[in-house]
Amino acid sequence: MAVINSQNGKPFIDVFDVESNDTTAVDIHTYPKGTVITFISLTIQESGVGTANASVGDDDDADGFLTAADAFASEGTVYGDAVNERGVYLYSSTYGAGYMKYYISAEKTLKLVLSAAVDTQPVFRVIVKGFSFSPD
Predict the structure, then answer these.
(1) CA gap 105, 34 in Å, rounded
(2) 28 and 109 in contact (C-beta within 8 Å)?
(3) Of the four, 3, 108, 112, 123, which is 20 to 30 A from 135 by CA?
(4) Is the pLDDT of residue 24 over 80?
(5) Whose CA is closest to 119, among 27, 39, 51?
């Protein structure tokens, strides 16, 4: 058997500053098919007023990347650096960390959403790390 095709993936690190919109998901960025996301973190940039959790997911799973981050923690608080803060795309309680999300057949939109309505919306910095290549 021989290698039929070989491709080099292009690594990326994307940084987005995102203001929440209560329980309405905010579209952060659409990634094309052929994208692999290996890490996501969420940092509180500006605290809001209220009580809610923030999650980061995509079109298929609202908290697939990060689950239940306290949206009103102190400014500078980072979520996603501890593996137990990661969603099912990046972590398994049985097998640990080291997972990644591969968009093999269709583009998907990264989203941020709060668990409840709040008085003043917080602002988050979302950092996405991964690589992309053409799957065709």
Answers:
(1) 7
(2) yes
(3) 112
(4) yes
(5) 51
